[in-house]
Amino acid sequence: MDTIVALATPLGRSGIGVLRLSGADSLKITQRLVNDDKFNPKPRHVNLRKIYDLQTSDVVDESLITYFKAPQSFTGEDVIEISCHGSPVLLRQVLDLCLRLDARLAEPGEFTLRALANGQLDLSQAEAIRDLIDANSIAMTRQAIRQLRGEFSHQLQPLKDDLLNVIVFLESALEFVEDDLPDYEAQNLKNKLKNIGSQLGKLTETFQAGKLLREGLQVALVGRPNVGKSSLFNALLGQDRAIVTEIAGTTRDQLNESFTINNIPISLIDTAGLRNTTNTVESIGVERAKRTMADADLVIVLLDGSENLTPEDKDIISQAKDLNYLIAINKNDLEQKEISVNNNGNILYISAKTGYGLDNLQHAIVEPFSPQDIDNSGFLVSDARHNDLLLRAKSEIENSISLLDQKMSEEIVLIGLHNAIRYLGEITGETTTEDMLTRIFSTFCIGK
Questions:
Q1: Helices (H) and strands (E) in the chain — how many of each?
Q2: Nearest to 101 by CA among 210, 168, 218, 4
Q3: Which of 28, 29, 92, 36 minimizes the C-alpha distance to 60?
Q4: Which residues neighbour 169 within 8 Å (Cβ) at sequence distance 6 or greater?
Q5: What stretches of 151-302 show up as alpha helix (H) in DSSP?
Q6: pLDDT tens across 38-58, in order?
């Protein structure tokens, strides 16, 4: 197998940049880099060595080199990590030297794919590495670490073992027993299958919370100009991100920033003020705001509590009525007008200027979507692929139970059970196709 190389740290200037080599020729390539054919570092010990230009023999950098000997490495192959000074030019130079020594630039996720191929981890653990890198909340990092440590795989393995035992029993009955299964044997099998289906169901029930933790919520702030959308945007973020002026229509395009509420990632969007306008640029912003409303998980319709309700306000509320929305009446720090809005109680009074009511607003944003206390929950299924496979396996098992009730032949019952075990195997990688692996690992970053 080719020896691969990639930058394992982000592009840009930093104190240190790390390049990673993996493959049978990793040590040989490193010996050429340090101009020492006898260089044979002790595994898992750091060595300070100079790296030389292959043509001029000039010193390129003085680096820390760590050798991980197969199979005691991340990929299960010989791995070399080279810690250089974090100059993008320097790192590119060392990378080019490795490529000239017949290393190949790694594909996205190829290091982890090799770890999977060499039995260092299963597919769900490999995906957890990607999730850990992409995590945007502490709670999501905890869930990713739990999956990386094999908690998901450990929960699935007893269920797969039980399912295989049922399959083996039915296969044996098909081969050696001429008569139908006795009622007590059939009932015993159904009980086992019902228990497996119940356990799979409990896992799928965690997906709503897991998806929320993984993907977060898209929340759009909408309203007519000058009701305080940008001020509220800044107040929720805790920074002056949006420009705030007394001039109506200051926000021409939408702004998007991320923050968290109770460990739930929130993508907050400040939209252009919704009104009829002849200004070409502003009208584009208005159209974008309307599209954002339709795509958002939650729309916050902002009203100015110091002014009477306007026709524009009523029109915006009408546009939001078929969406998931709440109404926030802003400027509570000013003298208030009587505003009557029929919104089934989803109305909050706030002041973006003083911070009044913002805690209640944050709670109202996440409360409808959070089915449980994420901080104190157990393992959560957060990947849509995993959830889909769990649901498919559960459905096949339930169908097989129904076939047993109908006293169908073992051959017919086994079709669904074989499908179920294949679906569960796709989660951990035993039965995953090459095309699916390619698709999964294409979402990884290069160098991981």
A1: 15, 12
A2: 4
A3: 92
A4: 189
A5: 151-176, 183-204, 207-215, 229-237, 280-295
A6: 999 999 999 999 999 988 989
Q: What is the rounded CA–CA span in Å between residue 238 and residue 13?
A: 28
Q: pLDDT digit string (tens) for 263-304? A: 889 999 888 766 555 455 555 666 777 777 888 899 999 998
pLDDT in tens, 357-389: 999 999 999 888 876 556 566 889 999 999 999
Average pLDDT over residues 402-408: 89
DSSP letter string, 365-411: HHTTT--S-GGG-------HHHHHHHHHHHHHHHHHHHHHHTT--HH
As a whole number of Å, the CA-based R_g of the chain is: 29
pTM, two decimal places:
0.81
Please name the residue that has the structure tokens 């299958």.
193
What pLDDT digit, counting tens, does each position of 214-271 carry?
Answer: 888 999 988 888 888 888 988 888 877 655 545 444 444 578 888 888 888 999 988 8
Q: Which of 277, 310, 274, 304 is nearest to 289 (CA)?
A: 274
Q: What is the DSSP letter of 10?
A: -
- pLDDT at site 247: 47
User: What number is the average pLDDT over the span 300-312?
Assistant: 89
Closest CA to 244 of 266, 216, 273: 273
- Domains, the chain, ordered by start: 4-106 (3.30.1360.120), 127-206+380-441 (1.20.120.430), 218-366 (3.40.50.300)
Report the 10 Å Cβ neighbour count for 255: 19
Assigned token pair, 228: 């305080």
With vertex at residue 342, the alpha carbon angle to CA 338 and CA 345, rounded to the nearest 5 degrees, is: 95
Other Cβ atoms within 10 Å of 21 Cβ, number: 26
Nearest to 20 by CA among 73, 90, 89: 73
189: helix, coil or strand? Answer: helix
- Cα angle for residues 87, 90, 96 (degrees, 5° grid): 140
CB 18 within 8 A of CB 82: yes
**361 backbone φψ class: left, alpha, beta (φ>0; ψ -120 to 50):** alpha
Longest pairwise C-alpha distance within the chain: 87
Residue 173: predicted pLDDT: 77
**According to the model, what pLDDT value does residue 224 have?**
86
